[in-house]
Design a protein that fits this description.
alpha/beta; binds zinc ion; 307 residues; 3-stranded parallel beta sheet; single chain
Length: 307
C-alpha cells in the first residue's frame, strides 16, 4: 500500500518528469494513435499528446464500416475501438498543423478499397494503416494492398492477433519475399508474443517471463530488411518489460527497425493509466545508448514515414 509520503513523492516525481519532457524538448514521433478512440474527445486527445510529449502524431484511421467476413461481421468496424475513418483523420491533420499526420485505410476486400486508399495517400497519408481485419495475410485482397503500397511508396502497418486479425503469421515471410520494396510494420499481440523462440501456444496473447531470442518476430526483423516493428499498445509494452535483459539486447540488435507508438485511449498522457508514457519510460530505461533511444523515439519513424 502506498503511504501518503510516497504518494507525494510520486506526484512530485511525475511533475518533474513532465517538466523534464517539456524543458528537454526532445522531439518524439508517436506513430500509432486514433481519433474518437473509445469515445475520447478531440480536446482530451490533444491534451493527451501534449502531456505525453509527442511532437508529431500519426492518426491511423479505421476502414469503412461493413458487415463482412473480413470485418469479423462488423467487429472490426472502427478498429474495434470506435476509431474514426479516413476523412476525420485527414481533416484533423489539415486543421492542426504539422504536428499531426494521417494514414489511409480500408477493409481490403471491399469494392473500391484500393481507390479509397489511393485517394487519401494522394492527399498526404504517410502509411496504409491500421490493417486490422479478419483476412489471410496472403489473401488476394491483402496482396492488392501490398501492391498498392509498393506503387504509392508508403508502408503498411498490420495488427497481428491469432485467430482474429491477419491470419498466417508463420507464412508471412512469403509476402516479405514477394514484396521486398514494401516496408511492413508489425504490431499487436501475435507480433510481440513471437519475439520468444519458445512461444508455443499461440492462444496466449500476453506471455510473461524470460524470452529466448530467435522467435519468429525476432527472425523476421533480422532476416528481412523490409520488416519493422511498432512498439505501441499493451502488447508492445509487455514485450519490452517481460525480460529486461533480453530487451536491452533486442533494442540494440533492431535499433534501426523499431518505432515508438502509444495506441492508448486514456485521457491522462502520463502515469499508470497511460501505456504510451510507460512505453516511453521503458525505451529510455532499456535503450543501451542515447543514440538508440533517439532512433526509437524519433529517427526511425522520421525516416520510415518520410516525415
Ligand atoms: Zn492495433
Ligand atoms: Zn496514454
Amino acid at each position: 500500500m502506498q503511504t501518503p509520503a510516497s504518494r507525494r513523492e510520486f506526484l512530485a516525481a511525475s511533475s518533474v518528469a513532465l517538466l523534464g519532457v517539456v524543458a528537454q524538448g526532445d522531439p518524439i514521433i508517436d506513430i500509432h494513435q486514433h481519433l474518437g478512440y473509445s469515445g475520447r474527445s478531440d480536446e482530451a486527445f490533444l491534451k493527451h499528446q501534449r502531456v505525453l510529449g509527442a511532437t508529431t502524431t500519426i492518426l491511423l484511421p479505421a476502414g469503412r464500416p461493413a458487415n463482412t467476413a473480413s470485418t469479423n461481421f462488423g467487429t472490426a468496424n472502427g478498429l474495434q475501438a470506435q476509431a474514426l475513418g479516413n476523412d476525420a483523420c485527414h481533416r484533423f491533420a489539415m486543421t492542426h498543423g504539422a504536428a499531426f499526420r494521417f494514414g489511409a485505410n480500408d477493409v481490403p476486400d471491399l469494392d473500391g478499397a484500393a481507390e479509397e486508399i489511393e485517394r487519401y495517400v494522394k492527399r498526404g497519408a504517410v502509411v496504409i494503416a491500421e490493417q486490422k481485419f479478419g483476412v489471410d495475410c496472403d489473401a488476394p485482397a491483402m496482396q492488392r494492398i501490398y501492391e498498392l503500397a509498393q506503387a504509392l511508396g508508403v508502408p503498411v502497418l498490420m495488427h497481428w492477433q491469432f485467430k482474429t486479425y491477419n491470419h498466417g503469421f508463420e507464412r508471412f515471410y512469403r509476402m516479405l519475399e514477394k514484396y521486398p520494396r514494401v516496408t511492413f510494420l508489425g504490431h499487436a499481440q501475435t507480433w510481440w508474443a513471437n519475439i520468444d523462440k519458445n512461444h508455443s501456444d499461440q492462444a496466449v496473447l500476453y506471455p510473461k517471463g524470460p524470452v529466448t531470442p530467435g522467435g519468429l518476430t525476432d527472425r523476421y526483423l533480422s532476416e528481412y530488411p523490409n520488416m519493422y516493428g511498432d512498439l505501441s499498445a499493451g502488447s508492445g509494452l509487455n514485450a519490452l518489460t517481460r525480460d529486461e535483459a533480453f530487451t536491452r539486447d533486442f533494442l540494440t540488435r533492431h535499433q534501426d527497425k523499431l518505432v515508438f507508438g502509444s495506441d492508448c485511449s486514456d485521457v491522462d498522457g502520463v502515469g499508470p493509466n497511460c501505456q504510451g508514457a510507460q512505453t516511453i519510460a521503458a525505451i529510455r530505461r532499456l535503450a543501451a545508448s542515447r543514440g538508440i533511444e533517439r532512433k526509437l523515439l524519433y529517427g526511425n519513424a522520421n525516416r520510415i514515414f518520410r516525415l
